[in-house]
Amino acid sequence: MFTINCRGKLITFEHPLVMGILNITPDSFYDGGKYFSEKDILEQAEKLISQGADILDIGGYSTRPNAQDVSEKEEISRVIPAISIIKKHFPATILSIDTFRANVAKEAVEHGADMINDISGGQLDDKMFETVANLQVPYILMHSRGNPQIMSQLTHYENILLEILHFFEERIQKLHILGVKDIILDLGFGFAKTKEQNFYLLKHLSYFKTLNLPMLVGISRKSMIYKTLNITPEQALNGTSVLNTFALSKGANILRVHDVKEAKEAIVLHNLLV
Hints:
CATH superfamily: Dihydropteroate synthase-like
Structural class: alpha/beta
CATH topology: TIM Barrel
Strand content: 15-25%
Number of helices: 9
Radius of gyration: 17 Å
CATH class: Alpha Beta
Order of helices and strands: EEEHEHEHEHEHEHEHHEH
Number of domains: 1
Largest sheet: 8 strands, parallel, barrel
Low-confidence stretches: none
């Protein structure tokens, strides 16, 4: 059974956990612009927590394909007040900062964030790994290529499973050398991958169990669902639940979702079958 040390609190993966998404951005593909005021942020945080979220993931930079770039200063101005106010009202809740910038991660942890979720796996800021090591917080290592502005053009792989495995092996080794112990893996569904590649990776999720680290799956309402079904992100909850359940059967340890209640229900029902 996997465990991670979160500011002295031991988090176990006896059962899969749910990470609720809270985007403080105007242009996220599903919930952009919904949560900017203090009242809206707190209400959504309370909703996610009451539905059973084990972790809240706070992001201030939209990473959907072709998203607009946001300055570091703007990103900090979005996420720090949100983290501070959530931590003040819900001090026991584990908060994750969704950023690829080392300075944003550092500021966020200093204001109450408990872990770092980096969509670039340390590739977009060469200070990130060193920062994680200094902060000694859990780190979500995600596979991607390029940045959100160009990643949709970088989808050619000779052997996608092997290439992602080698990417993880190399990055994990660098993190271990720096003294980072608590690492969670994310295959990066939708990041520099075609729809077909996303399904192939999900089908072969258990291939990455050889790395012996907990795995996060983030497919909530993504285009691999709504484009396949010819619907909108708003209509993609049922598809999300189906694929989350499949991910659980393949060994997912954390589900990163917009809809916590449904993800918790999927976990409860899945646990009765294993």
